[in-house]
Amino acid sequence: MPLYDRLADTDPAVADLLRSELDRQQHTLILIASENYASPAVLAAQGSIFCNKYAEGYPAKRYYNGCANMDGVEQLAIDRAKALFGCEHVNVQPHAGAQANTAVYQALLQPGDGILSLKLDHGGHLTHGMPLNVSGQMYHITHYGVGRESGRIDMDEVRRLALEVKPRLILFGASAYPRWYEVEAFRAVADEVGALLMADMAHVMGLIAGGSHPDPVPLCDIVTFTTHKTMRGPRGGMILCREEYAKDIDRAVFPGQQGGPFMHSIAAKAVMLAEAVTPQFRAYAQAVVDNAAALAEVLSARGYRLTSGGTDNHLMLVDLTDKGITGRDAAAALEAAGICVNKNVIPFDERSPFVTSGIRVGTPSITTRGFGREECARVGGLIADVLGDLESEGVKARVRAAVAELCAAHPLYADLLED
Ligand code: DSN
């Protein structure tokens, strides 16, 4: 009996929601920059009996019996990650990016130590020092920002602040930054002030793996990332580090932050890593970047200001300030037209994070479903059409029809529930 039928028999309410979510993912344009479609192979590992096993510890050093297959699958993930990223040590257990980052701080910092990182409202992440997050409560946070005109990280400011506060850790990486990072300049500043250098590459790790983004691994002491964004794996996190930090990092993940590892997620991470070394994945990574450029070009040509003037990676931030509309209203209108983006503050935004003056638009998901530059240019036009008249039901209906046509031409998960 197929697994889905069993679910429907046992719990029709969850089964209905699952089918409805499948329909949404199949028939809308997902442009949330941090989301993606995991492959059926990744989903199979994630939804497997690996979830039944406790395996506290690490391969060959477990606290429970019966872990031979757990050792096998975790070692496979470790070996594959080391080979793909060329790192000295990897921890594949973090349940998410937040745990990965917090474990790094716990491993390498003392409470009160300094972290220099990008401001949250300039694109940074809450685990990089937001006051309500443990990072902001335990450590002394100093933030750098992006230039008001350039929209880019100002390395002179990073150096000035680093010399001033002498942080223990300098951190780069973001949730809403459309440009490459100046890794060599960050390394130079870290060396000048004797700081550790950490990259949180959650958003762009798939581009790095695919060779379409500069590789920070050789220059950083620590690299963290999530596995479900451009990496296209299961939800989860990973930490890459130099050998000298390996013991402390492992101890901080378990038992510092977590108990039993999610072995089903680790199995799915192993599958993800096997997929990421293929020529198809390299082509995917480049297509994500090319598609973002095509979409950005159309939005710019239609009069929408993009922060920093465009994008080097998989996402762009559209500044709606001069259009007199909010990110909240724009995202709601787009969703009604079948296009899913998220409202997002733009640097120097005067509106609150619940309202915002911008939207964040990303191409990882639509590229997975096979869109190329031409389709992405068309998507840019559809977005501009909706933003041009948020109230028009006629425009939304026309855009919904175009979205349906695009989705039908690039079907996805066609027989996922019919196994
Ligand atoms: N929530 C993620 C994002 O959308 O970028 C970051 O953790």
Question: In terms of topology, how is this protein built?
Answer:
Blueprint: H1 3-10, H2 12-27, E1 29-30, H3 40-46, E2 57-58, E3 61-62, H4 68-85, E4 89-91, H5 97-108, E5 114-118, H6 134-138, E6 140-144, H7 155-165, E7 169-172, H8 183-193, E8 196-200, H9 205-209, E9 222-226, E10 237-241, H10 246-257, H11 263-276, H12 279-301, E11 305-306, E12 315-319, H13 327-336, E13 339-340, E14 342-344, E15 358-362, H14 364-368, H15 373-388, H16 393-409
Parallel strand pairs: 1-13, 5-6, 5-7, 7-8, 8-9
Antiparallel strand pairs: 2-3, 4-10, 9-10, 11-12, 12-15, 14-15
Helix pairs in contact: 1-2, 3-11, 4-11, 5-10, 7-8, 12-15, 15-16
Bound molecules: D-serine.
Short description:
The protein has helices spanning 3-10, 12-27, 40-46, 68-85, 97-108, 134-138, 155-165, 183-193, 205-209, 246-257, 263-276, 279-301, 327-336, 364-368, 373-388, 393-409, and strands spanning 29-30, 57-58, 61-62, 89-91, 114-118, 140-144, 169-172, 196-200, 222-226, 237-241, 305-306, 315-319, 339-340, 342-344, 358-362. The protein is built from 16 helices and 15 strands.
Features:
single chain; 419 residues; alpha/beta; Aspartate Aminotransferase, domain 2; Aspartate Aminotransferase, domain 1; 2 domains; seven-stranded mixed beta sheet; four-stranded antiparallel beta sheet; 15 strands; globular; binds D-serine
